Amino acid sequence: MTVLLYILKLHLISVYFFIKLFHRQKKQVCFLSRQTNTLSLNYKLIIKELDKYNIPYKYICKKVDSKVNDSIRTHGKYSNNFNFIINIFKNLKSNFSYYLSLYSQMRLIASSKVIIVDGYCLPVSLLKHKKGTKVIQIWHALGAIKKFGHQVIGNKEGVSYKVAKILKMHNNYDYILSGTEAMNSYFSEAFNTSIDKILTIGTPTIDYLLKKNIDIINQIYSKYPELKNKKNVLYSPTFRNDNRSGLKELVENFDFNKFNLIITFHPKVKEDIDDDRIIKINSKEFLTYDILKISDYVITDYSSLLIDALVINRKVLLYVFDYENYKENNGLNIDLVKEFPNITRRDGKGINELLLSKYNDKDYKKLQKNYKPKVKNCSKRIVSLIKECMK
To answer: Could you give the CA distance from residue 127 to residue 105 in angstroms, rounded to a whole number?
Structure first.
């Protein structure tokens, strides 16, 4: 597999050399994403702010097929050359589509002054760009409760050292945006860069959370009128490769007479429970950020949703049913069990006991003090940074 990746690398370097020769760099912003096929909320809000200053921009959002990612992961079933090649041909359409998108991305990068990414982007990190090009990493999560990027290289859930080195994982960033100073050291480790490149100016999602958006809230209540009758509890766990969510045990112990239970899962999660008492809200219909606003409590785990909830002062309960396993295989930057034991439980019964008893405000206030973002007007701050990069 590494031989094929070297071939791909040399091929892209050669192609990009000529692309740079024939594309003049303009004072425009380029947005790139492999997270979704549409503009993310962060990107939309930055673009809205850019329009105020007539700053030109272009974007390419091309979600990478999960099978493409699986092909290059250390411990995946495609970790040897033979199986890797078989997988390429089995998924030829999606692989070729992604390959073609790399050409479009390289042309756009070569003709732009400022590049904005929200995750790892192959041509951005792998290639040598024109002088004066500035790359801003706006990570798609506000926090780093769990380890990621360079922190998990060689781990069960990370890529191999060889792959990370060949593909120059998270390379070439000039600035990396963070929502709170408490996360800066973790971001520095995850992106393998000096901490002075981490700017605590937040992301536009903070602005969105702080905005009331009454019309959208009314739409939610209109479609789910039962949410007006009781206190609302949102359960939204992080994605796990084994698809476990702990939902069954949570539901078995949940007091539906006193609370509504809302669930929003990561798009990759396949677990489902047929129970009419659960209010399942599709993330394509309403953003989780909007569901947060009508929730009284938020049950989550190692997800950065924890930080989002703190922005608007929603009380958090931490449900870590696979704590030991997750800590060993994925790794944690924040040991929730040790730091916040009074609002953390390892089983569904314990979580529901917390809901029914007096919530521990002492631990919650400590959580807020340590990790709540204190920045505002993030979109304006980001555009100010972009304007500086344009000079």
So the answer is: 12
Cα separations in angstroms, 116 against 58, 190, 327: 10, 18, 31
- For residue 37, what are its two tokens? 């096929």
Instruction: Give the 3-state secondary structure percentages of the chain, helix then strand then coil, rounded to 5.
Output: 45, 15, 40
Residue reference for tokens 């045990």: 249
d(CA 88, CA 377): 44
2-202+376-390: CATH, from 3.40.50.2000, 3.40.50.10320, 3.40.50.11820, 3.20.20.150: 3.40.50.11820
Closest CA to 123 of 38, 42, 20, 40: 20
pLDDT tens, residue by residue, 284-335: 889 999 999 999 999 999 999 999 999 999 999 999 999 999 999 889 999 9
Give the whole-angstrom CA distance, residue 389 versus residue 385. 6
Q: How far apart are CA 18 and CA 251, in angstroms?
A: 58
